Task: inverse folding
């Protein structure tokens, strides 16, 4: 199974500011690009902070550059993180977006909460194909006709027969791990062991 990770969901074309970018220039960037925050980078393109709309609105009188406005240090993500890892970091740090950095700490993208939500907007047909191909056939080695998979709005219903009763909770857990699955219901019988 292939879980979507930050690299699959992030925005790669990142609007950024330097430490000395002026207050008005930051406000202009936010408006011009329709974004709600801008990462602030050092000379090596490494994030040192983030200036959000909220930071601009509650600006201190002496904050005339990005360095004075930004929330620092920047809380960052790695491209290989899962959606769950990124969401947990956002939640624990109370942020709505994360600059994404490479192994050298350089800015390569930004991932937002709305980017992470795209995982749950996968087409039902893509979810069904992944469960049938990856979970049932390749992972569990079940015959394609032994279990039918119905997916509606991310809700999976499994019907059919598996070899033993202990396989049912395993199959349900694997299905729940597929990106885009909201719920799993199974109506599975099992063959008696000889």
Result:
């Amino acid at each position: 199974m292939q879980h979507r990770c930050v690299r699959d969901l992030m925005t790669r074309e990142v609007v950024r500011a330097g430490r000395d970018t002026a207050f008005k220039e930051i406000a202009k960037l936010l408006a011009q690009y329709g974004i709600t925050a801008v990462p602030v980078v050092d000379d090596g393109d490494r994030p040192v902070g983030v200036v959000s709309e909220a930071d601009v609105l509650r600006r201190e009188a002496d904050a005339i550059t990005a360095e004075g406005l930004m929330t620092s240090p920047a809380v960052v993500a790695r491209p290989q993180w899962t959606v769950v890892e990124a969401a947990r970091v956002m939640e624990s740090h109370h942020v709505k977006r994360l600059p994404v950095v490479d192994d050298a700490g350089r800015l390569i993208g930004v991932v937002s909460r709305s980017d992470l939500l795209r995982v749950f907007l996968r087409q039902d047909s893509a979810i069904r194909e992944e469960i049938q191909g990856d979970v049932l056939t390749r992972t569990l080695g079940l015959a394609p006709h032994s279990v039918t998979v119905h997916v509606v709005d991310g809700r999976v219903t499994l019907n059919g027969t598996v070899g033993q009763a202990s396989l049912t909770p395993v199959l349900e857990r694997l299905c729940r791990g597929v990106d885009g699955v909201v719920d799993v219901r199974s109506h599975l019988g099992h063959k008696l062991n000889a």
Q: What stands out?
A: The chain is about 35% helix and 25% strand. The longest helix spans residues 124-139. The two ends are 32 Å apart (CA to CA).
